[in-house]
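Postdoc handover notes: sequence design on the structure in folder B. Input tokens:
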């Protein structure tokens, strides 16, 4: 079993590698990486590992920046000190979610789960039929926002963007109206169709079809998104994926 570790704290990475070796002496840690950029580059040049241990928050972004750019087929064990990412983690091919500091018993459980699931892998030519038979995912059609003691439904079809605002989210619709929703941005993102919406940065989630222009300046890339008068900066780690998504829209 070949394992890749993505962890930006060297001591935590060394401890995880040691625990893996003690739990399963036949496991091989093929690399230990600490940033989004390193991980994207490594995965672009090497075969995907059998299992990926992934820290959520990294030095230059979060682990979902990697998953936005790489079509990850390997099962993932998320390792983090933050429990609020669990919902989003299980929207991708996660088999376990371990909270730091890691406990040997929980790691043993995760490796055992991987070995059980590995026995159920399908042959590649079976996947197309599997996808056709699978039920389509259900995404949220509207949000209920509180305004002055009333609750108003805001339809997702009318939204062009969502912005992280303190511990809540500010929704922006096509008419330029703003709505405050008492949920974190990561939860809102998990409710929306990823074919229609994409994260530009930690702060902004936007409807791809609403983007009118992508520009490059001295500070990096930014998008124009009517009805906003100011452009929105694109995280450097997400630029390549954004370009690819915009080409598909055309």
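Designed sequence:
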């Amino acid at each position: 079993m070949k394992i890749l570790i993505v962890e930006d704290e060297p001591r935590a990475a060394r401890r995880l590698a040691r625990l893996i070796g003690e739990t399963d002496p036949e496991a091989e840690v093929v690399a230990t990486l600490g940033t989004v950029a390193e991980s994207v580059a490594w995965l672009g040049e090497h075969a995907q590992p059998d299992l990926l241990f992934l820290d959520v928050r990294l030095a230059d972004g979060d682990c979902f920046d990697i998953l936005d750019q790489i079509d990850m087929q390997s099962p993932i064990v998320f390792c983090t000190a933050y429990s609020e990412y669990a919902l989003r983690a299980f929207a991708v091919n996660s088999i376990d979610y371990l909270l730091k500091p890691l406990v040997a018993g929980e790691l043993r459980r995760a490796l055992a789960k991987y070995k059980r699931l590995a026995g159920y892998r399908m042959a590649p030519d079976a996947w197309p039929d599997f996808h056709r038979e699978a039920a389509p995912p259900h995404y949220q059609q509207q949000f209920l926002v509180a305004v002055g003691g009333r609750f108003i439904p805001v339809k997702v079809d009318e939204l062009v963007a969502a912005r992280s605002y303190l511990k809540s989210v500010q929704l922006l619709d096509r008419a330029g109206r703003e709505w405050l929703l008492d949920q974190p941005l990561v939860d809102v993102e998990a409710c929306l169709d990823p074919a229609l919406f994409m994260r530009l940065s930690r702060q902004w989630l936007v409807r791809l079809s609403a983007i009118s222009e992508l520009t490059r300046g001295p500070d990096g890339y930014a998008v124009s998104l009517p009805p906003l008068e100011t452009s929105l900066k694109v995280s450097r780690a997400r630029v390549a994926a954004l370009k690819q998504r915009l080409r598909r829209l055309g």
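Context for whoever picks this up: The mean pLDDT is 86. Don't rerun without checking with the PI first.
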